[in-house]
Fold each of these.
Amino acid sequence: MKQSENRLYLQAVTYVLCHTDATRRHLMRRVKLESGVPFRFHNRPVIGPQCVTVTIQIRDEDLKTVLTLGDRLAMASGSPFARVYRDLALVRVEFTLPRGRWREVHLSQLPHRASSATIGQKALGPVARVDWHNPHKSIFGATRSGKTTCLANFILSLARTHQPGEYQFLILNPKNDITFQPFARLAHLAAPLANNYEDSANLLRFALAEMERRRQDNERCRQRWVVVVDEVSQLTQINPETGPMLTQLSQMAGGLNINLLVASQAANPSVFGDKGSLAKANFPSRIVFQLPREQAYLATGLEGQHTEKLGGDGDGLAIVNGRTTRFRAALPEERDYETLPRSAQEPTPPDQDQLAGDCLVDEWQIDPDRLAYALVIKNSATALRSQFGGGTAKAMLVRDYSQLLKQRIRYWRQLREGA
Ligand SMILES: Nc1ncnc2c1ncn2[C@@H]1O[C@H](COP(=O)(O)OP(=O)(O)O)[C@@H](O)[C@H]1O
Ligand SMILES: [Mg+2]
């Protein structure tokens, strides 16, 4: 980009801040400053794939005023959308570039590291990386905003930096998106691609059974499994038994080195099935692409995120521990697929006896410690519901049943001791 265009954004910031009335409380009077908001530019503007970020230093008392200036800054510069945010002691003004000046990002141009997946480029840095510090990831975005492409980036980057012995994927592609077809012979597949709803449900059973195997055998935990699920809300709607399976995996699989990576068009908790809020709580790290305004809070978990202003085509926000980073996802190219390690044949599908049976995918997720806590310490249906979700009727039934069980145990113990 030409230096003169950069100057346009610097001028816009200067113009708006100099013409903004910043008022300052001075004893009990409000004193108007003649020169608008005092500020200083910090370093040079950073040119990202879809935006230019100008960094300024201001006085802390002006922060509130400056944070409201996004629309004026956008208008003064002719930018479709300007986001103003605080970054430690600095304020950043992120101008979205007009669509014609966006730059595509490609994985082959970016550095890759074994500890994380490289999925694109940040607005403020050379590369957008995602690690497994939070075990599960969710991706939200409207149709054609770039979710499936982003899932492909994850797979491509991780397969590039890891041997099949270290990493295995399950790919659930219930809507049969052709984006996943190049992965059919990926050497890192633990099972064939699931290209319909039924096979997708079976792969979740397979993942649950693997979770059980890992509980028995710690050695298995060395290999990481990544369960990639596209269109998760459609899957749980069409196949309701998948909701509880996802909840169970999200609650318990992370510690056993099985990670979920799910994408969904809708962001309300019910995308994860009827106990969705419980599952959603286990996805603190999210990627959000363009999404209608009313979904912004549901998807990001944060106020004031204008997801409707994102430009589509992989323009996204990465949210980790409440911090938002704008980035542009990479667009995979022919050569990214050429370097994929492939196997001669498709992996063998899991046998029926390798799938978790219905007892495992029951509606109740039983962690013995949590169950004991709810029944012994709290002894209430409310506690059961807060630990395991589900309806009141079922929770009361379990509570009553446990009381009955306690009575019977006491009775039989007395009988034995008396005998
Ligand atoms: N990171 C990206 N860079 C450029 N174009 C993209 C990017 N991601 C998606 N697109 C464009 O958007 C289209 C839809 O992307 P896709 O990932 O299938 O969206 P979704 O899964 O959200 O419906 C792609 O075919 C591509 O043309
Ligand atoms: Mg898609």
Amino acid sequence: MILHENHRLSRNSTIKDETGKSLEAMTVFQMSIKHLLDQLMETLNTQMVDPMFIKDVDFVLTVPAIWGDASKMFMREAAISAGIPTDQLTIALEPEAASIYCQYLHFEKEDTDRTDEFLKEVSTKMKYMVVDLGGGTVDITVHQKSSDGTLQEILPATGGPLGGTTIDKEFTSLIEEIAGKGIFEELKKESMEDYLDIFRQFETKKRNEATSKVRVTIPVTLDKLVKKKTKGGISKLLENMAIKSNVSYESSSKKLVMSPDFFNDLFKKTTEGIMQHIDKIFKTDKLDDVNTIIMVGGFSECKIIQKALQSKYKGSKRLIIPDEAGLAVVKGAVYFGHLPDVISRRVSRYTYGIQSWPEFCPGKDPEEKKIKVNNSFRCKDVMFPVIKRGEQIKVGHRKSQVFQALKPNQTELECAIFVSDKEDPRFVDEEGCRQLGILKVPIPAGTSCAEIEETIIFGETEIQFTANQLGSGRIMSTSFDMLDPKNLPDP
Ligand SMILES: Nc1ncnc2c1ncn2[C@@H]1O[C@H](COP(=O)(O)OP(=O)(O)OP(=O)(O)O)[C@@H](O)[C@H]1O
Ligand SMILES: [Mg+2]
């Protein structure tokens, strides 16, 4: 499942499968996690002498660092409904897990010298960029080791929809260019097996840079569908196309044949997009002192992308690709499960604020925000900032605010929390601001005009909340629902 930066899942969100049928996203996530959980427990119980139960295991689920708080909450709810107890579950950010893995490096054999050098430097506060190249996204962060051995995030994660599947899309476009736009929709209806098969084949071709012609078998169903429209089939269609000098069709073996240069060029746009993104980060974030790039994620194992980055950064940056780059995240997540305090500082990706209605300030506040409450004028919808975008936060950083119940018989205190991509938003209804959720604190019966201190805890992988009653110090229960469909529709 690919979710991008501003993707917002709510409990009502649905996901479409390859055939266009929808299912609730929560069900899809829950069943996927349940399947992994069942497989794990089965494997453990066939390999261990003593029986293992869910209660014996701590679970770590990884999410891309560009996911927002609501998506992480969604993942946690899905895991809980799959049967993982919430107090045995940690959510880890993928580039952090990869970075942790790189602290316990296992480089490819020929890189042994560089490994020693890297480990020596990393212990002396070196900053390094982690580039996680996955299936759907590239996720980039910059980390630094501190003197106490923990890792600090120097730059919050940014990323975009570039990864291994972007190459599959290039291949899809090629077939559509030859056989017509809707060809894969037709193929899926005729034979899903053949549709999956052509991409399974392409997956194996993607692994290496082509030095000779690349051949992909065209499934019988696809061949038939094309022949239904054009008698001579793919060969005939190619005759009139500009790409015919690079792409041909072998009727005897039913194979599409691509010249090595043409095949390698399918990676060009993605590779360039990734490098542009890296360059932009180096330029805009003044990272002159970052000389090392660590590449992780499955797509980092792709020889073409490795070569492109190596030649681009030769002489200026050092490129490190750990052994089993594709497993760096999952193996790092296991370390994270054992060492949850290994990340000491993170950088806030958003400005977090509380919706407030301060006294109206004539001349300063816009007239349209003026509202009369009781006997005074207030300025509505002000975003009172709690944490600013780009602020470096220590793990466990707490921000508190005191709220007072206005009526004696009030049963609940509500506080709307907003996030913004801007550093200094003024109002909660500005562009880039969205409601994250409403923090609700029930007030026990018989408490009159309670003063409640609400605390937001930042810096962990997931945002947390606590509340206590001033005076008595009594801890109140809180609920914060980020998945309410009313919060925001999916973009
Ligand atoms: N040796 C390889 N050569 C080329 N591509 C590869 C290789 N190994 C894996 N990939 C590609 O890497 C992608 C999978 O990478 P990975 O497992 O890191 O993704 P993911 O973490 O599931 O996705 P994301 O991080 O985007 O959510 C697939 O698109 C796959 O085709
Ligand atoms: Mg990934």
